[in-house]
Amino acid sequence: MYKNINILIIGMGNHSQRIYIPFLNKVSKTTNLKFYGLDVALSKSQIESKLNEKGYDFERFYIQGGINLSSADKKILDEILVNKKINAVVIATPPEYHMLYAHWALKHKLHILMDKPISARKNSSTDLIQAKKLVSDYRNIVSEFERQNKNRKLVFMVNTQRRYEIGYKYVCSLIEEATKKFNIPVTSIQAMHGDGVWIFPDEIIEQNCHQYYDGYGKCSHSGFHLFDIVWQFYKAGYVKDKFADRAEVYSSFLQPKGLIKQFTQNDYKKIFGDKYNLRDRKSDSELNDIYNGYGENDAFTNIRLLKDNENICNISINLLHNSLSDRSWVRPSNDLYKGNGRVKHQYYYIQQGPFQTIQIHNYQSKGKQDNNDLADYEVGGNNHFDINIFRNAKMFGGQTKSFTKVTLKDLDTKHMLDDTRLYHETAKEQIVSEFLNSIEGKTNASNIKSFIDTYDTPVQIMSAVYQSNVKYINRQNPLVKFNIKNEEH
């Protein structure tokens, strides 16, 4: 099993250390799969310290890095490719480098598993051209993939784990059931995702993990997951002659310049006292100047889906970095990915006219998420995920109930949580497993849930959200329109 798979992990940061490296390390101990790591020299000491602490002994390589590959970096990559017989890559770099390595990998006809979003663009929240290029990035990489994949043997997947999580799949099946019975599409969706990320004013300038200083933020971080899963919900209610052909998008951002007005440096000093002044702090005025052009903390978006110029579905997607956190300390933790008080809250309200309402509630209350038990299925637990199903019981007929509550514990028939893990991280491992099986030909490309050519509308939504904000700050009409590609369900 996996005897001919040699993987290069490009990017060995927090996400790789939490998902890709542990999983591939485990698989490599019982199969002939081999994997290697690559990152930039600037991060070498930090990466080596963490990996050595955890006892990993796979071979690692380092390059200078940059937005373009230097001749020296290309030489190192090409030597790794040949000497280690690399035939697949996992791209886990910051998102502005996704396209660079994806094009390099396609040039060499390598299988690709890439983190979301498809791409990110510096200044996409303030520059209309950069916001629009998110769509051309995507379509160019799909075209390149199709040119290199004429024999249909290459695999190119994107790590959007909600497509794999059992709770979301169950919700899609409920939507499909109502659509099949009543010929009713999804008629409205409300979605909210709060990351629980509390980044102090000076840290916004300094933070290199999920940074803001490059002119993008929440929408290019975890926000893409919401753009994607909301579209999957809508597609689940597919009715051919009722499917939207166009979208209109309006967005409103909260950026760091607004954040410092909500909660000032003096507010921080009053709460944390002398501890807050143990390092130099910039004033509100200084920060306000520095924050020019920074990316979004929060993004509130309204989407109208139209069919033949008539609105047929209203969608709201509200994304927050500036939300409830478990942080209570002054100095940021070393692990800015999961260890800095991050608490996730999210909900979805999905309507299908008079027939069905589905509510998803997913609320954590703790920043520490490495040790979980059965109590973590409950509200406030790390693995809390409740689905409330309201149905017009008489219209459905049979034994249908007007209300049913389904929990993640009810759906977790395979007891994925026996190892005390976060459930959504087991879904990420499912993606890696599907990637490996697809390379070996055990999964047909048409059955892959996250194939690269299935993201056109989520990318268009992300681009439109940024375009709308740019137009607003430029005092232009902030309504952004785009056509939806015809999608057979």
What's the structural blueprint in terms of helices and strands?
Layout lengths: L5 E5 L3 H15 L5 E7 L3 H10 L6 E4 L7 H13 L4 E4 L6 H10 L3 E5 L12 H21 L7 E4 L6 H17 L5 E7 L6 H6 L16 H14 L9 E9 L1 H7 L2 H8 L11 H7 L7 E10 L2 E11 L24 E8 L3 E8 L22 E6 L1 H4 L6 E5 H4 L11 H17 L16 H18 L6 E4 L6
Parallel strand pairs: 1-2, 1-4, 2-3, 4-5, 5-6, 7-10
Antiparallel strand pairs: 7-11, 8-9, 8-15, 9-10, 11-12, 12-13, 13-14
Helix/strand order, N-terminal first: EHEHEHEHEHEHEHHEHHHEEEEEHEHHHE
Number of strands: 15
Please tell me the overall pLDDT: 93
Biggest pleated sheet: 9 strands, mixed
User: What order do the strands of the largest sheet run in, or round the barrel if closed?
Assistant: 14-13-12-11-7-10-9-8-15
Distance between the termini: 33 Å
Helix content: 25-40%
Shape: globular
Low-confidence stretches: none
Approximately how much beta-strand content do the residues carry?
Answer: 15-25%
Q: Which class of secondary structure composition applies to the elements?
A: alpha/beta
Tell me the radius of gyration.
23 Å
Q: Provide a count of the helices.
A: 15
Describe this structure in words.
With 489 residues, the protein is an alpha/beta fold. It contains 15 helices and 15 strands. It has helices at 14-28, 44-53, 71-83, 98-107, 128-148, 166-182, 201-206, 223-236, 256-262, 265-272, 284-290, 393-396, 408-411, 423-439, 456-473; strands at 6-10, 34-40, 60-63, 88-91, 111-115, 156-159, 188-194, 246-254, 298-307, 310-320, 345-352, 356-363, 386-391, 403-407, 480-483. The strands form two sheets. The chain has a nine-stranded mixed β-sheet with strand order 14-13-12-11-7-10-9-8-15. Strand 11 (345-352) and strand 12 form a beta hairpin. Helix 1 packs across helix 14 (423-439), helix 5 runs antiparallel to helix 15 and helix 9 (256-262) runs antiparallel to helix 11. The longest helix is centred in the first third of the chain and has 21 residues, at 128-148. The protein starts with 5 loop residues before the first strand and ends in a 6-residue tail after the last strand.
